Amino acid sequence: MGAVSTTFMAGVELVRQKKAVPVGSLTQMGTIRLGKRTEGRSPKIKDFVKLAKLEDMVFGGWDIFPDSSYEAAAKAGVLDPHHLAAVKPFLSKIKPMTAAFDHEYVKMLDGKHVKKGKTKYDIALQLKDDIANFKKKHGCSRLVMLWCGSTEVFLQPHDVHSTPEKLEEAMKANHPAIAPSMLYAWAAITSGMAYGNGAPNLSVDIPAMQELAHRHGAAIGGKDFKTGQTLIKTVLAPAFKARMLGLNGWFSTNILGNRDGEVLEDPGSFKTKEESKLGALEFILQPHLYPELYKRIHHKVRINYYPPRGDNKEGWDNIDIFGWLGYPMQIKVDFLCRDSILAAPIVLDLVLFLDLAQRAGMRGIQEWLSFYFKSPMTAPKLYPEHDLFIQLMKLKNTLRWMMGEDLITHLGQEYYD
Ligand SMILES: NC(=O)c1ccc[n+]([C@@H]2O[C@H](COP(=O)([O-])OP(=O)(O)OC[C@H]3O[C@@H](n4cnc5c(N)ncnc54)[C@H](O)[C@@H]3O)[C@@H](O)[C@H]2O)c1
Questions:
Q1: 46-68 per-residue burial string, b: 16 or more CB within 10 A, e: under 16
Q2: Which residues sit opposite 194 in a β-bridge?
Q3: Is residue 98 predicted with pLDDT exceeding 80?
Q4: Do residues 189 and 212 lie in contact, with contact meaning Cβ atoms separated by under 8 Å?
Q5: Residue 365 Cα, ligand 1 centroid: separation in angstroms?
Q6: Which among 14, 114, 256, 397 is placed 20 to 30 Å from 244, CA to CA?
Q7: What are phi and psi of 314, to 5 degrees?
């Protein structure tokens, strides 16, 4: 029931009422080229692959506060009054189920709308009951869970995360390496649901969850929606590398005033976000392959909670690059964005694509959905692909492959033979 999830649900309903256009959603607005450039075949993605229809979707969720989605959306202050009024009857009916929550993992929040149980395992079983009851109540044939909850404190991978059996034992023993977000992920996967992680929490990025996903036929993806500053970073950095321009430093700072910003004031939660935001440059620029260009990069990321801005985040980037013969240059980016407006279409696409993947029998990590994540999960020993346009090509080729169409390599020799 946070800013992202209520903006997502409200947006889907506004689109269904034909009062808004789903801008930012690849599944709803994007096309996919098929065959040769001369064939002129570019259907909409939603007509090419059999995605669930917006009209068929129902929504539910959990929160530590009892506010309905309408009350939560009004408090989040993302949407204008005329949009809120149009979805009031719809959002008012979506009331949160009690949360699996522990203040130790999100230090800036405390709420009373929470589950009670002797062990973390008991709480996870209650989440499974919630899922089963929701499915029955709404007559759903399929479910997808997407984590849009707060960012938890930084957790290192631990031995208890290594196998499903150890994970379950640790849940029963209330082990501190089991965060509440893992209980949701465990409940989803063991219920055979697809699961995506919109926050940087470890969550499903551990071997035990990946093994469970295979056992239960669940498609999983993560972590941390790639929406604002990192989206721009993963567009600009590949351009520098493509032209063999060097980089000395990249200073990124943000001001934001929503609850997410407040949660990230806690150093533990910030550390989780920082790790997620820092990874992209290293993987894109590959300093081990280009030491003269990228060996000494000073990369800093700061997030400052500044209430007057609400959900309208400002992300500044100062980028120190160098060119021919080492001459320095600077680029400044000032992105006056809207956090949840950027995140909501990503939530929609992930729900629809994770559901598609699961129906297509694709289990475990869905690397083709890296396009949507700041810190994409991969198979062990693989480095993640962060370049936005490689990610898009991977995504579209996966759709072509699913539907038995030729993959597009962009070679293009056939036009000149
Ligand atoms: N552009 C973006 O908005 C963006 C981008 C990347 C990642 N994210 C991540 O998405 C998440 C949601 O962002 P938001 O702006 O909606 O934040 P938010 O603070 O508005 O919403 C998070 C909600 O999660 C609830 N919550 C916390 N722990 C919970 C638990 N254990 N169980 C149930 N509910 C719980 C909170 O009460 C809150 O209502 C955050 O982790 C954020 O870092 C957002």
A1: bebbebbebeebebbbbbbbebb
A2: 144
A3: yes
A4: yes
A5: 22
A6: 397
A7: -115, 125
